[in-house]
Amino acid sequence: MIIYQNTAGGFVDDVVQNAIIDEIVAGFETQGVGGASQNEIRSWKNSLQYMSNLFYNCDVPTDAEVAIEFQIPLTSRRVDFMISGRNIEDQKNITIIELKQWEGEPTEPVPHKDGIVKTILGRGKRETTHPSYQAWSYSRLIEDFNLKVQQEDIELCPLAYLHNFDEQYRERLDNPTYKHYTKQAPVFLKQDVDNLSRVLESKIASTHSENLIQQVADSDLKPNKKLQDSLGSMLEANDEFTLIDSQKVVFERAVELAEEANQQNSKKVLIVKGGPGTGKTVVAINILAGLVQEDYTARYVSKNRAPRSVCKKNCEVTCLSKRLTICSTGLGAMFRRHRINSRP
C-alpha cells in the first residue's frame, strides 16, 4: 500500500503549492486506513520541505518515481520516503529514506543495547531504534520477502536523513557502536545536503518509466533463498533446536499436512497438545523453518514472544534473529492487519 505517489517534479510542485499535506491525508482516506495523526502531519510539514529543497539541490530526474508512506507488506510499518530509477550503472534502484526531525543536543547513544538510541519523543526522552537501523531493517524486510526485488535484482539503498541534527553532535549517532547499521544505511545530517545530493544523483541517475515502487508494492511475497539457507543453518548449528522423540513426529506430520493442503488446494489443521517444557516452541520454529526452506510462505502466530525470544537467545547472528521477526506476529497484530473475526 502506498499513501502518496508522484514524480519527483510533481512532489516538489505539491510542496511549493502547499498541497502536499492535503494530498497525503487524501491518500489515507482513499486507502481506507483512517486519518493521519497530528504528530504525523507535523512531521510531514517539517521534513517534506527539506526533501523538496534537496531535490532543488541535486540533479535527480524530475520523472523519477516518488512514494511517501509505503507500507511494507505483512507489517504495519511504513517507509517515510522512497524514490526509484536507475543508478549510474543502469541497475534498477529504490532508495529508502528514513526522515527524522531530531536535534543533536538531546540525543544520546545507548552503547549497551544493539541499534538503540535515546532522544526526545513526544513529551519526554526515551529509547528508540537508531535511524540507520530503521532504514536498514525496512530494506531487509522488503529484500527478504518481495519476489519482484528478488527476481529483477532491484538494488535497495537505505539511508537516514536528520535535517535538524547538527554536525557537532554527529558522534552520538555515527560511532563504532552503530557501525554495523550506519555502514549499510548511512546517516546524513543538517550539513550533509551536498553529500546526500551526490548520493541521490548516483542512485537515481536516469529513469525508464518503470514505476518500480508500484511494482514492488504489487509483488507476490516469498522468502528469498538467503533467508531460507540462514534459517536452516541456524537450526543445524544449535542443539537446542534438535527435535527428539514425539517432537520429530509432530514436525513431520505438520510438513506432511502442508504438502497435502498445497496439492489438494484445501485447508488443514493440526492441533498439538503439550505442557510447559515439552518443546512446543522448538517444534514451531522447526516447522516454520522447514516450510520456508520448501518454498512455502509460512507465519507463526502466537499470544507471546516465545519464538522470537528463543531465536534471539540461540542465534549467534543477531541480524538473522531480527529478520525472523517478520515470520512471526502476535495475535492482536494479526487481527488488526487482516481484520480476522475472533469469534468462532
Structure report:
The chain folds into 2 domains: 217 residues, no CATH class; 114 residues, no CATH class. 45% of the residues lie in helices and 18% in strands. The chain has a 6-stranded mixed beta sheet. A 3-stranded antiparallel beta sheet has the order 5-6-7. Strands 10-11 form a two-stranded parallel ribbon. It starts with a strand and ends in a 6-residue tail after the last helix.
How much helical structure, as a percent, in the residues? 40-55%
Strand content: 15-25%
Question: What is the N-to-C succession of helices and strands?
Answer: EHHHEEEEEEHHEHEHHHHHEHHEH
List how many beta strands DSSP finds: 11
Largest beta sheet, briefly?
Answer: 6 strands, mixed
Number of domains: 2
Distance linking N and C termini:
30 Å
Mean pLDDT across all amino acids = 84
> What's the alpha carbon Rg, rounded to whole Å?
22 Å
| Unreliable stretches covering 5 or more consecutive residues | 326-344
Instruction: Figure out the total of helices.
Output: 14
